[in-house]
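REQUEST FORM: STRUCTURE PREDICTION
Request ID: SP-0412
Submitted by: Lab K.M.
Chain count: 1
Length (residues): 474
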Amino acid sequence: MEVLTQKSSYPFLKGGGEMGELTRNYDWSKNELGDPGQWPQSLRTALSIVLNSKFPMLLWWGSNLIQFYNDAYRPSLGNNGKHPTALGQKGEECWPETWPIIKPLIDQVHAGDDATWSEDQLIPIYRNGKLEDVYWTFSYSAVKGEGGNVEGVLVVCNETTNKVLSQRKAIEKEYNLRNTILQAPVAICIFKGERHVLEIANDRMYELWGKKEADLLGRPIFEGLPEASGQGFEELLNGVYTTGQTYKAYALPITLPRKGGVETVYVDFVYQAFKEADGNISGVMALAIEVTEKVKAEKRLEESEAQLQLRVKERTAELESMNKELQRSNSNLEEFAHAASHDLKEPIRKIHFFTERLKNQIRDRLTQDDINILNRIENASHRMGILVDDLLVYSHVSLQPHEMEEIDLNDKLRKVLDDLELDVAEKQAVITIANLPVVKGYRRQLQQLFQNLISNALKYSKPDTKPAIVITST
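STATUS: Completed
RESULT:
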């Protein structure tokens, strides 16, 4: 075997980056392997491959498994830990925390068995000041010497801790999503792909659809639920799936299976694009709440309000009609009061006049009882007159004038003189009436005017003088 004494002339140690430099500068004279110039060719070849590989590699050599590793393997050792002590160190001394796991694999390779392969294997190691859970995908393979015996074990490995943790997070995220969907207080489901295959739905969604899980899960939704097809929902799902734009609807009618048939129910729902971790749309998530009873209640309320408004309108019309009728009744009553007050005054005056005349003519023949009776008649007629006067005052205050009408003053004056017949006779008045015109005015007020004028003229005439009253037009 050729012996090289100058480390600068060791071709197998050239290159290799940081670990190549550390390996060249290592004092191998203090290591059981001795000077590199005396190393066997199999070790030189294997080490040259390790140092210059861009894939993480570690080499155990000899019975004590002296260690070599490259720059790609270096990050797996962590900071402030095994590096750089691991270089030239015995395997058991370097990996006491993992030795019970990896030593049987090393022995298997040393025994001449096939290389080992492990994927995403948990092998905790001490690094970064603590024992960490580290996952590896690795292979142990034999490195044979010149005599064909296994002299070393080559470890080709890749730390997969981040991958495993990411996968776990993804699984946990999916589990949480599925658990959230299944336990949600509203109906939720996820459709996947262009055909909107039902991937998952909770019990509330199946209840809304009126179908069982076995009828729908894993099938395109409109194949499993043909009752909902042809109502525009295919277009809505396609639009959300292709554009990613969320669609919301409130109290939308939809025909669904109910009680062995189909019924129209009302639903609030949202269609939202379901995106994968890379942002690509893979399906549509649907969230729905049935609001059929709410919609029916609102319709009943609207109908009740419409009926109420109709009843109010009808009642208002009735009240307006009753009010008009009451106004007519009040008007008739006021006119009656006005007419009755004048019509009643004349009989009262006659009672008063003839009672007084009777007393004067037969006074000498009347007993005291007769006189008392006549006085009582006079008092009663007087009280009646007061009541009639009050009624007349009321009619004047309450009576609202009607529309003006054509009035013949001659007829109106004759009626007034008929009412005042006794007053005219008592005063022996002479009344001259010219031909009066027909005028436009208020009938009751004109009658009251003439009656007041003639009555006052008679009442305030001089004693022992026959009044002369002339009524003419100008």
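NOTES: The longest strand covers residues 261-275.
Reviewed by: T.R.
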